[in-house]
């Protein structure tokens, strides 16, 4: 609709729109588009929401079972990704997370297939965690440190085995029991047990 006559309603409307800032017009268009999407796809949003709730419920059940299994053994804790994360957070409060980081680095190291990468990774791990005065030096004895140093000359996937075993034993006998007694784990354990009881009462 166009009009060149003075006083024409269409002409007044065009002048009014032209006077508006461009950002206002852009926002209006964006709002219209969003409303159109919501009005035309209500059932999609409903299905997505239901699916998310089901997945969330499943994850909660899995995590509840996991949390309670962590106290069965140190191996159970290390097998759980969320358990390793929770244990790592606890170790940070004791300023000893380098022990777990070293253990994880060794686990990753064992999966390396390239001999070139094996050698470079071995040197990097040794320099970061094992050598004397390393930035994140782990608590191992001098003899184990020297054995590991010698292993670097012909790096294999087993060159950190002894140092890793010593660090693991230290965590299992020292840090792990304290983790189970910590307020953070006790709280997680109570919540997990509560969810388990609630689930049984509804079945």
Automatic annotation (TrEMBL):
Q: Does the keyword Ribonucleoprotein apply?
A: no
Q: Which Gene Ontology terms cover its molecular function?
A: GTPase activator activity
Q: Where in the cell? A: Membrane
Gene Ontology cellular-component annotations: membrane
GO BP: any one term: negative regulation of signal transduction
Region feature Disordered, mapped onto this chain? 183-203
Composition-biased stretches (Polar residues): 183-196
The free-text function statement in the UniProt record for this protein reads:
Regulates G protein-coupled receptor signaling cascades. Inhibits signal transduction by increasing the GTPase activity of G protein alpha subunits, thereby driving them into their inactive GDP-bound form. Plays an important role in the phototransduction cascade by regulating the lifetime and effective concentration of activated transducin alpha. May regulate extra and intracellular mitogenic signals.
Q: What protein name is recorded for this chain?
A: Regulator of G-protein signaling 16
Q: What is the lineage of its organism?
A: Eukaryota, Metazoa, Chordata, Craniata, Vertebrata
